[in-house]
Amino acid sequence: MSTLEIKGLQVSVATEAGFTEILRGVDLTIKSGETHAIMGPNGSGKSTLAYSIAGHPKYTITGGSVTLDGVDVLAMSVDERARAGLFLAMQYPVEVPGVSVTNFLRTASTAIRGEAPKVRTWVGEVKEAMKALNMDTNFAERNVNEGFSGGEKKRHEILQLELLKPKFAILDETDSGLDVDALRIVSEGVNRIKGSSDLGIMLITHYTRILRYIKPDFVHVFAAGKIVEEGGPELADKLEEKGYAEYTTA
Amino acid sequence: MSTLTTNYLAPTGREEAWRFTPLARVGGLLDASTAIESVASLRITNAAPQIKLTVKSAQDLPAISISDDLATIRAREVISEVTHIEVAANAQPSEPLIMERSGLTGKPQASRTLISCGVNSHATIILINTGDVILADEIEFDLAPGSNLTFISLQEWSAKAVHLGRQHAVISKDATFNSIVITVGGSLVRLLPTVEYSGPGSSADLQGLYFATDGQHLEHRLHVNHNVPNAKSRVNYKGALAGDKAHTVWIGDVYIRANAEGTDTYELNRNLLLSDGARADSVPNLEIETGEIVGAGHASTTGRFDDEQLFYLSSRGISAEIARRLVIRGFFAEIVGKIKNEEIENRLMDRIDSELAKVEA
Q1: For chain A, first and last CA: distance in Å?
Q2: ipTM score for this prediction
Q3: I need a surface site. Which of A70, B70, B193, B243 has the fewest CB within 10 A?
Q4: From the list B312, B319, B332, which residue is nearest A111 (CB)?
Q5: What is the CATH number of domain A1-245?
């Protein structure tokens, strides 16, 4: 049983106009096995929360804490956070020219597991995970995210989630840019991983659509850099009906 | 032949062709008063069927092309013996011919080679350059109609080496010249991969990779002369630089003459700056005298490591050191993958890793 605890998190980003505060004191605790949906309008700081936890250098932490089972996450380097058990499925996964998916997955797995995966079982493991996500086998030979369609990029993120087996996954707008079929495949992937592990999930989304496939235990409404309302799945239904208007008008 | 000719004048450094080159470091190769020894320096280490090597007198085997390169002019004056490599007509050797250098002393020397590819032959020749040299080197390629040659030269010279080289191909009708130039070693390397055509349907694919670290000067000056109709050229050079005073120069001159209708050309140079204090010069130049062409373009970029790529890899648990190694291997992969010789590819990738490790140390 693990706990990811975010307390009073304040984050700024450097812009041409100087430092702009984006997160204004975020409090959120996620335990193993729980799925928390973070919902909010565009520009409310949802992605900043995701990237700040992962350690993107663009963001400056100006206050608060993030701990994983009591250990200070913010003191760790980006790769240390991943090895500690955090995973960020990105909204815009980055192309890495000349690096094949198979080489990338093997290098990442070696880093996370602390030893190179056994060749004999590894190949089968990757193939099976790819098959479950409806990915063609030649996918492994392509360069990371290069020329991938939106759906392929998201499936590739979930493939990594399956193989790297983190304690907590942050899914940043994983539903964006997906058609209904791709959304179903990706969601089934997440649910399968959740069903076979104790994964805790922070599901960041603008729309309620993905919540029909991945059922949240808790819903948090995010506006202007902090959580403004919390509830159960029923809160998503309310948002579906009424939108974010009541949270964005001051 | 006399050692001094009236048409030879040592460069001052103000000439366009020499303005990037540290002339104080060329080891006397451009100085008419320096004694330069003629040497037939190529030695076969892995023979290929139907490719033979003979050494001939320079008088019996004159140069097949005109050059205005001063190092080449100077070298031609002193050359007494020429190495002739002949690929038999219709030969399709399954193995590459692999050659190394021998007889190089570290004193000023000049070497000239002619590689003749017979009609409809299809071969790969690999030249591995190692050692401590001061060498003016010319290799000409005479591609008969329908021939296909892949020539891979690896400049793995030792740290003090000076290499002024010209690799000039004359490509006839329906022939294809694939050049892969890899330059990682040497103090000063200035190479001229140049191409002219003698018949339509001919094609040149010029690929290059260079990695300069502390104080190295690695210069590649390409020249593609589209002087016939319906010929094709592709140029793709990629370089990395790291460390104080590492300097690379890439010049890509492509000329499309008035009669070169149907020309299809594209040239590309990408540089990756891995540390402060390094300098990459990149000058693509396209001159077009006819509009009746299939396509002509060029691109040049010089940049640093992409932070987003490194973040993506790090966010998967990969350490910064291994992430940088992955990115740089990936950067060079498209060139290295064309070598199609596992041993050389692995050695080159290891070399790239170790150059990178030097930067991080």
Answers
A1: 39
A2: 0.97
A3: A70
A4: B319
A5: 3.40.50.300
